[in-house]
């Protein structure tokens, strides 16, 4: 790690949640760096869990620690419009299942940290990610992609604290209020935004043990979901969802509505052991109710509006695209190159998809589009009135079989004449 000369840091912008860890980091920056601290708290939709109380608590905590410049910003619309929706145009999933809910939030937070640092003439930014996780990589790669000269302070990689007891002792010594329910070890850690919630650690560390039901906060159990199915329609324009059941909604409003529908039907739970970018395996419990519905709907919309070649190429590119986001390379040129290709493919992805939600399942039961490539005249089992000449398949199949027949003839000992190279028996007639 590059050593930062503390004397060069006079002002720091801290990604601040208002929780115990970032409150200790705030005070640590004041005492160890003797720096003025600016706090930034992003409302990414995590307040939907706490009803907004979390954001106000962050303001109160920052004020109690003497902070003069406090940034608390509602970035939900920007988050969904400029980060979540572009990612869903790619149908991005990491390691086949993870919808990247935490990963996609970090570039936006980093972007605002850099912008606020410029606005306030700060020398550095700071984050509360630990030295074992992916988030430290995501924050810092994003920040340096936007400002290569900016200093980044990662307290968990610098300080001497070894345990939660050390943190609590520091909090007590510096009069940082710790609610009684926060004084013990939390049963698991949580990250949440409008796209998802993730839970990791403590009671979830043994991947052989099932996750306790109390871990889930965004969905009811599929077993407890209603016995009656819920039918919905999602409208798309240029690859992005724009309406639910005929009602036009903003990006954040639409995702919130899908979250509500997903919650009520037990949709979007995932218990995953993933491969972290830093090299270790990690078990997490993720809930992405609206995103799970959206992914199914988007693929259904693409199924009738995307050409086969474009659709298959997208599926080939997707794992690389998802890995770039997971590893923190949102602002990299390769991600932007892939995004340009993906966005180009979405020009005609428009129409409506009908879905049925039932006990954790998302089922497609209809899709329609003015830009559809589906032709009933071509696929019908009835008289197609000359739309397709089935005899054309003869040459198509024979040409595609040529190399296979050649290989089979060789392997079965019926190869060509060694001297003339001509085949025997007319097997390549």
Detailed description of the structure:
The protein has 429 residues and is an alpha/beta fold. It starts with 10 loop residues before the first strand and ends in an 18-residue tail after the last helix. It has 13 helices and 14 strands. The strands form three sheets. The chain has a five-stranded parallel beta sheet, with helices on both faces. It has a five-stranded antiparallel beta sheet with strand order 10-9-8-13-14. A four-stranded antiparallel beta sheet has the order 6-7-12-11, with no helix packed on it. A hairpin with a 5-residue loop joins strand 11 (269-275) and strand 12. It is elongated. It has helices spanning 20-32, 47-50, 53-64, 76-89, 106-119, 135-146, 164-173, 251-264, 289-305, 308-327, 333-345, 376-379, 392-411; strands spanning 11-15, 36-43, 70-74, 124-126, 151-153, 189-192, 197-200, 230-237, 240-244, 247-248, 269-275, 281-287, 351-358, 361-368. Helices cover 39% and strands 18% of the residues. Among the domains are: 6-76 and 103-185, HUPs (Rossmann fold); 192-306 and 348-374, Argininosuccinate synthetase, chain A, domain 2 (Alpha-Beta Complex), CATH 3.90.1260.10.
């Amino acid at each position: 790690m590059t050593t930062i000369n503390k004397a060069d840091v006079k002002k720091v912008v801290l990604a601040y949640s208002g929780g115990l860890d970032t409150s200790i980091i705030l005070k640590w920056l004041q005492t160890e760096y003797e720096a003025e601290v600016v706090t930034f708290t992003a409302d990414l939709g995590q307040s939907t869990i706490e009803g907004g109380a979390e954001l106000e608590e962050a303001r109160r905590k920052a004020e109690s620690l003497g902070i003069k410049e406090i940034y608390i910003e509602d970035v939900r619309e920007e988050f969904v419009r400029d980060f979540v929706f572009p990612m869903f145009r790619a149908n991005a999933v990491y390691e086949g299942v993870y919808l990247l809910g935490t990963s996609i939030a970090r570039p936006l937070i980093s972007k605002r940290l850099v912008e606020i640092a410029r606005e306030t003439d700060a020398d550095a930014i700071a984050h509360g990610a630990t030295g074992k996780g992916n988030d430290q990589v995501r924050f810092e790669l994003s920040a340096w992609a936007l400002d290569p000269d900016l200093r980044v302070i990662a307290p968990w990689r610098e300080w001497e604290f070894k345990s939660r007891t050390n943190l609590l002792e520091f909090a007590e010594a510096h009069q940082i209020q710790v609610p009684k329910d926060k004084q013990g070890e939390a049963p698991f850690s949580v990250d949440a935004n409008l796209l998802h919630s993730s839970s990791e650690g403590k009671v979830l560390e043994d991947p052989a043990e099932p996750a306790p039901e109390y871990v889930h906060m965004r969905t009811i159990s599929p077993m407890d979901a209603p016995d009656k199915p819920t039918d919905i329609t999602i409208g798309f324009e240029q690859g992005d969802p724009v309406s639910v059941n005929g009602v036009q909604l903003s990006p954040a409003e639409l995702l919130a509505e899908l979250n509500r529908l997903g919650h009520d039907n037990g949709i979007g739970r995932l218990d995953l052991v993933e491969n972290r970018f830093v090299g270790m395996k990690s078990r997490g419990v993720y809930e992405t109710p609206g995103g799970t519905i959206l992914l199914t709907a988007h693929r259904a919309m693409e199924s009738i509006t995307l050409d086969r070649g474009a659709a298959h190429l997208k599926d080939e590119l997707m794992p690389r695209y998802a890995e770039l986001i997971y590893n923190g390379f949102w602002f990299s040129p390769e991600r932007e190159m892939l995004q340009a290709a993906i966005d180009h493919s979405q020009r005609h992805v428009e129409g409506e998809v009908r879905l049925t939600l039932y006990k954790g399942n998302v089922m497609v039961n209809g899709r329609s589009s003015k830009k559809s490539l589906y032709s009933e005249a071509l696929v019908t089992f009835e008289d197609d009135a000359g739309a397709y000449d089935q005899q054309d398949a003869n040459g198509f199949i024979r040409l595609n079989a040529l190399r296979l027949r050649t290989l089979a003839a060789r392997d079965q000992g019926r190869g060509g004449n060694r001297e003339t190279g001509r085949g025997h028996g007319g097997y390549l007639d």
